[in-house]
User: Fold these one by one.
Assistant:
Number 1:
Amino acid sequence: MIYELRVYEVHPGKMQAVQDRFRDHVIQLFKKHDMNIVQFWEDLEPGNNRLYYLVEHTDLETRHVNYDRFNKDPEWHQVKRMTEVDGPIVKKHESFFMHNVAFFENK
Protein backbone atom coordinates (compact mmCIF):
# COMPACT_ATOMS: atom_id res chain seq x y z
CA MET A 1 0.00 0.00 0.00
CA ILE A 2 0.96 3.58 -0.57
CA TYR A 3 -0.58 6.65 0.99
CA GLU A 4 -1.18 10.04 -0.52
CA LEU A 5 -1.40 12.98 1.82
CA ARG A 6 -3.29 15.74 0.03
CA VAL A 7 -3.09 19.26 1.40
CA TYR A 8 -5.62 21.83 0.22
CA GLU A 9 -5.07 25.51 0.78
CA VAL A 10 -8.63 26.82 0.89
CA HIS A 11 -9.70 30.35 -0.03
CA PRO A 12 -10.63 32.43 3.04
CA GLY A 13 -14.23 31.84 4.10
CA LYS A 14 -14.57 28.69 1.93
CA MET A 15 -13.59 25.95 4.41
CA GLN A 16 -17.18 24.90 5.02
CA ALA A 17 -17.85 24.84 1.26
CA VAL A 18 -14.93 22.51 0.58
CA GLN A 19 -15.91 20.25 3.49
CA ASP A 20 -19.51 20.16 2.28
CA ARG A 21 -18.33 19.24 -1.22
CA PHE A 22 -16.35 16.30 0.15
CA ARG A 23 -19.15 15.18 2.48
CA ASP A 24 -21.95 15.49 -0.08
CA HIS A 25 -20.19 14.44 -3.29
CA VAL A 26 -16.47 13.73 -3.47
CA ILE A 27 -16.22 10.90 -0.93
CA GLN A 28 -18.82 8.94 -2.92
CA LEU A 29 -17.08 9.78 -6.21
CA PHE A 30 -13.76 8.57 -4.83
CA LYS A 31 -15.41 5.29 -3.81
CA LYS A 32 -16.88 5.01 -7.30
CA HIS A 33 -13.33 5.20 -8.66
CA ASP A 34 -11.85 2.75 -6.12
CA MET A 35 -10.12 5.34 -3.95
CA ASN A 36 -10.23 4.99 -0.18
CA ILE A 37 -10.02 8.10 1.97
CA VAL A 38 -8.54 7.07 5.31
CA GLN A 39 -8.92 10.30 7.28
CA PHE A 40 -9.50 14.07 7.07
CA TRP A 41 -7.95 16.80 9.20
CA GLU A 42 -8.42 20.54 9.41
CA ASP A 43 -5.44 22.73 10.35
CA LEU A 44 -5.46 23.52 14.07
CA GLU A 45 -4.72 27.16 13.25
CA PRO A 46 -7.93 28.38 11.52
CA GLY A 47 -6.10 31.21 9.73
CA ASN A 48 -4.05 28.66 7.76
CA ASN A 49 -7.19 27.55 5.86
CA ARG A 50 -5.82 24.07 5.18
CA LEU A 51 -7.64 20.78 4.81
CA TYR A 52 -5.61 17.57 4.87
CA TYR A 53 -6.70 14.11 3.88
CA LEU A 54 -5.08 10.73 3.40
CA VAL A 55 -5.92 8.43 0.49
CA GLU A 56 -4.88 4.78 0.42
CA HIS A 57 -3.80 3.29 -2.92
CA THR A 58 -2.60 -0.15 -3.95
CA ASP A 59 0.31 1.35 -5.89
CA LEU A 60 1.20 4.51 -7.84
CA GLU A 61 0.04 3.16 -11.19
CA THR A 62 -3.40 2.32 -9.79
CA ARG A 63 -3.54 5.75 -8.14
CA HIS A 64 -2.89 7.46 -11.48
CA VAL A 65 -5.51 5.36 -13.28
CA ASN A 66 -8.14 6.01 -10.60
CA TYR A 67 -7.50 9.77 -10.45
CA ASP A 68 -7.57 9.96 -14.24
CA ARG A 69 -11.01 8.30 -14.25
CA PHE A 70 -12.18 10.61 -11.45
CA ASN A 71 -10.94 13.74 -13.25
CA LYS A 72 -12.72 12.70 -16.46
CA ASP A 73 -15.99 11.82 -14.72
CA PRO A 74 -18.80 14.16 -15.91
CA GLU A 75 -20.37 13.92 -12.44
CA TRP A 76 -17.19 15.44 -10.92
CA HIS A 77 -17.26 18.28 -13.46
CA GLN A 78 -20.89 18.98 -12.59
CA VAL A 79 -20.14 18.97 -8.84
CA LYS A 80 -17.15 21.27 -9.32
CA ARG A 81 -19.22 23.72 -11.39
CA MET A 82 -22.10 23.62 -8.94
CA THR A 83 -19.90 24.15 -5.86
CA GLU A 84 -17.85 26.94 -7.43
CA VAL A 85 -20.68 29.17 -8.67
CA ASP A 86 -19.34 31.93 -6.41
CA GLY A 87 -15.72 31.29 -7.40
CA PRO A 88 -13.02 28.70 -6.69
CA ILE A 89 -12.90 27.26 -3.19
CA VAL A 90 -9.44 25.66 -3.30
CA LYS A 91 -6.50 27.99 -3.85
CA LYS A 92 -3.93 25.20 -4.41
CA HIS A 93 -3.24 21.62 -3.46
CA GLU A 94 -0.19 19.45 -2.95
CA SER A 95 0.29 15.70 -2.76
CA PHE A 96 2.88 13.78 -0.77
CA PHE A 97 3.33 10.05 -1.39
CA MET A 98 4.37 7.73 1.41
CA HIS A 99 4.66 4.08 2.31
CA ASN A 100 4.97 2.23 5.60
CA VAL A 101 8.38 1.71 7.13
CA ALA A 102 9.49 -1.79 8.03
CA PHE A 103 10.50 -1.05 11.63
CA PHE A 104 7.10 0.16 12.86
CA GLU A 105 4.05 -1.96 13.54
CA ASN A 106 0.97 -0.28 15.00
CA LYS A 107 -0.98 -2.59 17.29
Note: The CA atoms of residues 8 and 93 lie 4 Å apart.
Number 2:
Amino acid sequence: MPLAGKPMLWHIVDRLRRAPGVATVGVATSDRPGDEPLREFCRAEGIPVFAGDERDVLDRFYRAAVTFGGDPVIRVTADCPFVDPEIIGQLVAQYHAGQYDHFAVATGSVAHGSNDARFPDGLDAECIRLAALEKAWKEATEPSDREHVTPYLYRVVGRFRNGMLPAAEHHGDLRWTVDHAADFAVVEKVYEALWRADRPFLMPEILAFFAAHPEVRALNDAFVGTEGYAQVWNPK
Protein backbone atom coordinates (compact mmCIF):
# COMPACT_ATOMS: atom_id res chain seq x y z
CA MET A 1 0.00 0.00 0.00
CA PRO A 2 1.36 3.46 -0.89
CA LEU A 3 2.19 6.16 1.64
CA ALA A 4 3.33 9.55 0.30
CA GLY A 5 3.83 7.97 -3.11
CA LYS A 6 6.02 5.07 -1.93
CA PRO A 7 5.20 1.55 -0.70
CA MET A 8 4.94 1.28 3.08
CA LEU A 9 7.98 -1.03 3.10
CA TRP A 10 10.08 1.67 1.42
CA HIS A 11 9.32 4.07 4.28
CA ILE A 12 10.22 1.49 6.93
CA VAL A 13 13.59 0.84 5.26
CA ASP A 14 14.21 4.57 4.79
CA ARG A 15 13.48 5.32 8.44
CA LEU A 16 15.75 2.52 9.62
CA ARG A 17 18.58 3.70 7.39
CA ARG A 18 18.47 7.03 9.24
CA ALA A 19 18.89 5.40 12.67
CA PRO A 20 22.22 5.81 14.51
CA GLY A 21 24.13 2.55 14.83
CA VAL A 22 22.44 0.84 11.87
CA ALA A 23 24.86 -0.31 9.17
CA THR A 24 22.70 -2.41 6.84
CA VAL A 25 18.94 -2.70 6.41
CA GLY A 26 17.73 -5.91 4.78
CA VAL A 27 14.37 -7.56 4.21
CA ALA A 28 13.68 -11.18 5.20
CA THR A 29 10.65 -12.30 3.23
CA SER A 30 9.31 -15.74 2.41
CA ASP A 31 10.30 -17.87 -0.56
CA ARG A 32 6.67 -18.21 -1.70
CA PRO A 33 6.01 -17.33 -5.34
CA GLY A 34 3.43 -14.82 -4.08
CA ASP A 35 6.17 -12.79 -2.40
CA GLU A 36 8.18 -12.36 -5.60
CA PRO A 37 6.89 -8.76 -5.96
CA LEU A 38 8.55 -7.99 -2.61
CA ARG A 39 11.81 -9.49 -3.77
CA GLU A 40 11.62 -7.61 -7.07
CA PHE A 41 10.93 -4.36 -5.21
CA CYS A 42 13.95 -4.86 -2.95
CA ARG A 43 16.25 -5.63 -5.87
CA ALA A 44 15.03 -2.56 -7.75
CA GLU A 45 15.58 -0.34 -4.68
CA GLY A 46 18.99 -1.78 -3.79
CA ILE A 47 17.70 -3.30 -0.54
CA PRO A 48 19.38 -6.57 0.48
CA VAL A 49 16.74 -9.30 0.52
CA PHE A 50 16.68 -12.85 1.85
CA ALA A 51 13.94 -15.37 1.06
CA GLY A 52 13.26 -18.22 3.49
CA ASP A 53 10.63 -20.42 5.07
CA GLU A 54 7.20 -18.80 5.36
CA ARG A 55 6.21 -20.37 8.69
CA ASP A 56 9.55 -21.05 10.40
CA VAL A 57 10.33 -17.35 10.63
CA LEU A 58 13.05 -17.93 13.25
CA ASP A 59 14.94 -20.00 10.70
CA ARG A 60 14.38 -17.35 8.03
CA PHE A 61 15.46 -14.52 10.32
CA TYR A 62 18.58 -16.29 11.59
CA ARG A 63 19.70 -17.22 8.08
CA ALA A 64 19.06 -13.66 6.93
CA ALA A 65 21.15 -12.30 9.81
CA VAL A 66 24.05 -14.56 8.86
CA THR A 67 23.70 -13.64 5.18
CA PHE A 68 23.60 -9.90 5.92
CA GLY A 69 26.47 -10.14 8.44
CA GLY A 70 24.61 -8.57 11.35
CA ASP A 71 25.88 -8.78 14.94
CA PRO A 72 23.99 -7.52 16.79
CA VAL A 73 20.86 -7.87 14.72
CA ILE A 74 17.98 -5.40 14.95
CA ARG A 75 14.55 -6.87 14.29
CA VAL A 76 11.69 -4.66 13.10
CA THR A 77 8.55 -6.08 11.54
CA ALA A 78 7.20 -4.73 8.28
CA ASP A 79 3.85 -3.70 9.76
CA CYS A 80 5.47 -0.83 11.70
CA PRO A 81 5.63 2.25 9.41
CA PHE A 82 6.25 4.63 12.34
CA VAL A 83 9.47 2.89 13.43
CA ASP A 84 11.42 5.70 15.08
CA PRO A 85 15.12 6.20 14.15
CA GLU A 86 15.78 8.06 17.41
CA ILE A 87 14.39 5.22 19.52
CA ILE A 88 16.38 2.70 17.48
CA GLY A 89 19.52 4.70 18.24
CA GLN A 90 18.74 4.60 21.97
CA LEU A 91 18.06 0.87 21.74
CA VAL A 92 21.42 0.14 20.12
CA ALA A 93 23.35 2.35 22.55
CA GLN A 94 21.78 0.75 25.62
CA TYR A 95 22.23 -2.75 24.21
CA HIS A 96 25.97 -2.15 23.95
CA ALA A 97 26.18 -0.39 27.33
CA GLY A 98 24.53 -3.29 29.13
CA GLN A 99 26.13 -6.18 27.23
CA TYR A 100 22.75 -7.82 26.69
CA ASP A 101 21.80 -10.86 24.65
CA HIS A 102 18.41 -9.36 23.85
CA PHE A 103 17.33 -5.76 24.42
CA ALA A 104 13.92 -4.55 23.27
CA VAL A 105 11.75 -1.47 23.07
CA ALA A 106 9.06 -1.80 25.75
CA THR A 107 6.06 -2.58 23.58
CA GLY A 108 4.39 -5.52 21.86
CA SER A 109 4.66 -9.07 23.12
CA VAL A 110 8.07 -8.44 24.73
CA ALA A 111 6.48 -6.01 27.22
CA HIS A 112 3.35 -8.07 27.89
CA GLY A 113 2.81 -8.13 31.65
CA SER A 114 5.64 -5.67 32.31
CA ASN A 115 5.26 -2.75 34.72
CA ASP A 116 7.50 -0.55 32.55
CA ALA A 117 5.96 2.43 30.78
CA ARG A 118 5.33 1.24 27.23
CA PHE A 119 5.71 2.78 23.82
CA PRO A 120 2.83 2.68 21.33
CA ASP A 121 2.29 -0.70 19.74
CA GLY A 122 4.08 -0.38 16.40
CA LEU A 123 7.36 1.09 17.62
CA ASP A 124 8.60 -2.45 18.29
CA ALA A 125 12.30 -3.17 17.84
CA GLU A 126 14.69 -5.72 19.30
CA CYS A 127 18.49 -5.77 19.37
CA ILE A 128 19.84 -9.32 19.51
CA ARG A 129 23.29 -10.82 19.92
CA LEU A 130 23.89 -13.18 17.00
CA ALA A 131 25.16 -15.97 19.28
CA ALA A 132 21.94 -15.78 21.32
CA LEU A 133 19.85 -15.83 18.15
CA GLU A 134 21.78 -18.88 16.98
CA LYS A 135 21.09 -20.63 20.29
CA ALA A 136 17.36 -19.94 19.94
CA TRP A 137 17.48 -21.13 16.33
CA LYS A 138 19.03 -24.44 17.45
CA GLU A 139 16.96 -25.01 20.60
CA ALA A 140 13.45 -23.56 20.16
CA THR A 141 10.86 -26.22 19.31
CA GLU A 142 7.50 -24.59 20.06
CA PRO A 143 5.74 -23.62 16.81
CA SER A 144 4.91 -20.23 18.37
CA ASP A 145 8.60 -19.59 19.09
CA ARG A 146 9.50 -20.47 15.51
CA GLU A 147 6.75 -18.26 14.10
CA HIS A 148 7.32 -15.18 16.29
CA VAL A 149 11.14 -15.42 16.14
CA THR A 150 12.25 -14.12 19.55
CA PRO A 151 9.95 -15.37 22.39
CA TYR A 152 12.43 -18.13 23.24
CA LEU A 153 14.90 -15.38 24.11
CA TYR A 154 12.67 -13.67 26.68
CA ARG A 155 10.02 -16.13 27.91
CA VAL A 156 12.29 -18.08 30.27
CA VAL A 157 13.65 -15.83 33.01
CA GLY A 158 17.42 -16.16 33.49
CA ARG A 159 18.05 -18.04 30.22
CA PHE A 160 19.47 -14.98 28.43
CA ARG A 161 20.61 -11.51 29.48
CA ASN A 162 17.49 -9.48 28.69
CA GLY A 163 16.56 -5.83 29.06
CA MET A 164 13.98 -3.30 27.89
CA LEU A 165 13.98 0.34 26.92
CA PRO A 166 11.01 1.92 28.78
CA ALA A 167 9.07 4.90 27.54
CA ALA A 168 9.23 8.20 29.39
CA GLU A 169 5.42 8.13 29.61
CA HIS A 170 3.00 5.24 29.17
CA HIS A 171 1.48 5.05 25.67
CA GLY A 172 0.57 1.36 25.62
CA ASP A 173 -3.02 2.18 24.67
CA LEU A 174 -1.96 3.46 21.24
CA ARG A 175 -1.95 1.17 18.21
CA TRP A 176 0.49 2.22 15.47
CA THR A 177 0.88 -1.13 13.71
CA VAL A 178 -0.89 -2.21 10.52
CA ASP A 179 -2.99 -5.37 10.48
CA HIS A 180 -6.38 -3.97 9.45
CA ALA A 181 -7.76 -1.40 7.03
CA ALA A 182 -8.54 0.86 9.99
CA ASP A 183 -4.89 0.72 11.07
CA PHE A 184 -3.76 1.78 7.62
CA ALA A 185 -6.29 4.62 7.61
CA VAL A 186 -4.61 6.00 10.75
CA VAL A 187 -1.13 5.66 9.24
CA GLU A 188 -2.22 7.27 5.98
CA LYS A 189 -3.61 10.34 7.77
CA VAL A 190 -0.37 10.77 9.72
CA TYR A 191 1.82 10.46 6.63
CA GLU A 192 -0.36 12.95 4.77
CA ALA A 193 0.17 15.46 7.59
CA LEU A 194 3.76 14.86 8.68
CA TRP A 195 5.88 13.20 6.00
CA ARG A 196 8.79 15.16 4.55
CA ALA A 197 11.50 13.88 2.24
CA ASP A 198 14.36 15.53 4.13
CA ARG A 199 13.76 14.11 7.61
CA PRO A 200 11.68 11.46 9.40
CA PHE A 201 8.87 12.52 11.71
CA LEU A 202 9.28 11.11 15.22
CA MET A 203 7.08 9.92 18.07
CA PRO A 204 6.54 13.38 19.69
CA GLU A 205 5.23 14.75 16.39
CA ILE A 206 2.79 11.86 16.01
CA LEU A 207 1.58 12.30 19.59
CA ALA A 208 1.04 16.02 18.94
CA PHE A 209 -0.89 15.23 15.75
CA PHE A 210 -3.16 12.82 17.63
CA ALA A 211 -3.72 15.38 20.38
CA ALA A 212 -4.91 17.82 17.72
CA HIS A 213 -6.88 15.17 15.79
CA PRO A 214 -8.44 12.70 18.25
CA GLU A 215 -10.81 11.52 15.52
CA VAL A 216 -7.82 10.04 13.65
CA ARG A 217 -6.47 8.31 16.71
CA ALA A 218 -9.92 6.77 17.29
CA LEU A 219 -10.14 5.17 13.83
CA ASN A 220 -8.59 1.87 14.99
CA ASP A 221 -9.61 1.89 18.66
CA ALA A 222 -11.64 -1.28 18.11
CA PHE A 223 -8.42 -3.25 17.55
CA VAL A 224 -6.46 -2.04 20.58
CA GLY A 225 -5.72 -5.00 22.84
CA THR A 226 -6.57 -7.68 20.27
CA GLU A 227 -2.98 -8.66 19.42
CA GLY A 228 -2.91 -11.97 21.34
CA TYR A 229 0.37 -11.39 23.15
CA ALA A 230 -0.62 -13.72 26.01
CA GLN A 231 -0.52 -16.65 23.60
CA VAL A 232 3.07 -15.81 22.70
CA TRP A 233 4.06 -16.11 26.36
CA ASN A 234 1.97 -19.23 26.95
CA PRO A 235 2.09 -21.21 23.69
CA LYS A 236 0.70 -24.46 25.14
Note: The two ends are 35 Å apart (CA to CA).
